[in-house]
Design a protein that fits this description.
Blueprint: E1 5-6, E2 18-19, E3 28-30, H1 41-57, E4 63-67, H2 75-92, E5 98-99, H3 101-110, H4 121-131, E6 135-144, E7 147-156, E8 161-171, E9 182-185, E10 192-195, E11 210-213, H5 221-225, E12 230-238, E13 244-251, H6 257-265, E14 269-271, E15 273-274, E16 280-281, E17 283-291
Length: about 290
């Protein structure tokens, strides 16, 4: 899903560690039944081995491993990949440490995020960087008509750059159009994330939030004087009423522009996400505010 845009130092973690991937195991607002999946453990294990080898080349011990939104299409696939990856990392990376899922959730919530945000890559990258972690490994599933692309990304959290994107093709016995997205709901917050499958029809089955009244934020005199431009990236909930709520800052700007972005988006109004039942629901999503000088 594209990030909506407008034109217009975090607390360190107590220790460096390997963040073992987790699944929130919460109910879905609507989950269509998926066809039987022809499991290919050899391909999954091969991808885990290649990913671990790439991590080992960095000679870093401190690694985050996390499944992203797409993993909810078939959680078992990502769980198998992550278990194999962890086993490989334990063999290849001497002195690796593993953290409990609860520690990660506590850190996110302490920074204004919610547990559901741990499925979003930019949130995880922001956390890893502020923690001084070395490597972030994320895995996800990309829906294809005849199966999935299982991907793993190796990210250098210190340098802030992607090191590698690895991929394995997993097939299903039947081809499907898969137009209906998955809406995955967090039981604790009541917020949902929309996970798309295939090309969406002209008239979508499930509608994403659409900005209806989103005036540009104002520049501060300091930012204008220093010619500061760029984006402020936020993680927000668009409520059933179309309001912006539960805002977390992923990436900000100097010169008071982050505060200006926060002030602006809290006044924005959206057409909320609409489910296939025609009813609105609260959606969790990234939101980008761009500052440009003439």
């Amino acid at each position: 899903m594209p990030i909506p845009k407008s034109k217009g130092s975090a607390t360190p973690w107590p220790n460096k560690f390997v963040f073992s991937s987790f699944l929130l195991y919460v109910g879905a607002l609507c989950i269509s039944s998926l066809p039987g999946y022809a499991q290919t453990p050899a391909e999954i294990e091969a991808l885990a081995g290649r990913t671990a080898q790439r991590v080992a080349k960095t000679r870093q011990q401190h690694i985050f491993v996390a499944g992203l939104q797409g993993c909810q299409l078939e959680p078992e696939i990502c769980a198998k990949f992550e278990a194999s990856l962890r086993a490989n990392l334990e063999k290849m990376v001497s002195g690796a440490h593993f953290a409990k899922r609860e520690n990660v959730i506590n850190i996110l919530e302490g920074r204004g995020f919610i547990a559901l945000d741990a499925y979003f890559p930019d949130v995880l990258k922001a956390v890893a960087t502020s923690a001084g972690a070395d490597i972030l490994v994320t895995d996800s599933l990309e829906w294809q008509s005849d199966g999935y692309d299982l991907t793993s990304e190796v990210y250098d959290a210190v340098q802030g750059r992607k090191l590698d994107l690895l991929r394995a093709k997993l097939t299903r016995p039947a081809v499907e159009s898969g137009a209906e997205p998955l809406v995955f709901k967090d039981a604790q917050s009541g917020d949902s994330m929309i996970i798309y499958r295939g090309k969406q029809p002209r008239t979508p089955i499930i509608e994403s939030p659409v900005c209806e009244r989103c005036p540009n934020p104002s520049y501060t005199p300091e930012a204008q004087a220093d010619r500061i431009q760029g984006r402020v990236l936020l993680q927000v909930t668009i409520t059933e009423q179309g309001a912006v709520d539960q805002v977390g800052v992923i990436d900000g700007l100097a010169g008071g522009l982050t505060d200006q972005a926060l002030e602006a988006v809290r006044s924005w109004h959206f057409k909320p996400a609409i489910g296939k039942d025609g009813k609105p629901f609260a959606a969790r999503m990234p939101l980008e505010v761009t500052f440009r000088l003439p």
